[in-house]
Design a protein that fits this description.
The chain contains eight helices and nine strands. With 236 residues, it is of the alpha/beta class. Helix 3 links the parallel strand 3 and strand 4.
């Protein structure tokens, strides 16, 4: 086991052992115990009561965080002609077709999200071994295989995240940066949680979210009460 820094140990000491914090409490505590000089990312991990080996229990989706992620995503678009021009105009960082496909086949993956027009997916699909494990493969279910590449780029740049349960039934996503105020982080968490709950497979029985943890890039994990699904007060 790696030796923890004194700052990490001091941060962990402020977290009550065996306590499950309400989401807003966990967010406030995460901001309090963050010790890096860098603006750390705030991350959430859920353990889901699903069997991802079964196609009807694969949880995958997208959500646009109301306050963004705090990071400007580098977006790559596979497109030709006027669609390529539209992607460039929308602010895509990399646009092309065969040239980018060859570059990625060689191992280059210096981008955060990929979009493709449907006509190029026959070629892009060959990159599955490179893009798949990094969750970068364009997919119509996440809106990244589309003719409206400009909208896809704008959504991603505007704070759209995607998430997918892994083979161990874990699901990870980010909700912003430590520099965000607690209310914005709570609203981002609530938006993501609502979408995860909406995607609960009908074939999943028993508890859906069995474990929840909130952490910062370098900080200790904070156990979140997975039973709390109403994060924000009801405005009605």
């Amino acid at each position: 086991m790696a030796k923890r820094s004194k700052a990490f140990v001091a941060a962990a000491a402020k977290i009550e052992e065996d306590k499950f914090y309400a989401p807003v409490e966990a967010i406030a505590l995460a901001k309090e115990v963050a010790f890096s000089k860098a603006d750390e990312t705030v991350e959430v991990a859920f353990r889901l009561g699903v069997d991802p080996r079964k196609a009807d229990q694969m949880v995958r989706g997208t959500v646009i965080l109301p306050h963004g992620t705090g990071k400007t995503a580098r977006v790559l678009v596979f497109a030709n002609g006027d669609k390529a021009e539209a992607a460039i105009a929308a602010g895509a960082d990399f646009v092309g077709s065969d040239d980018l496909i060859a570059k990625i086949a060689g191992g280059w993956t210096d981008f955060d999200a990929a979009v493709a027009t449907p006509d190029l997916m026959g070629k892009v699909g060959r990159l599955g071994k490179v893009l798949g494990p990094r969750n970068l493969m364009p997919n119509p279910k996440t809106g990244t295989v589309t003719m409206d590449v400009a909208k896809a780029v704008n959504d991603i740049k505007g704070g759209k995240i995607d998430f997918r349960v892994d083979k161990h039934s874990n699901l990870h996503f980010i909700i912003g940066k430590v520099s965000f105020d607690a209310q914005k982080l709570a609203e981002n968490y609530a938006a993501a949680l609502d979408e995860v709950l909406r995607l609960k497979p009908s074939s999943s029985k028993g508890r859906y979210i069995t474990k929840a943890t909130l952490t910062t890039t370098f900080g200790p994990g904070i156990a979140v009460d997975a039973n709390v699904t109403r994060v924000l007060p009801d405005a009605s």
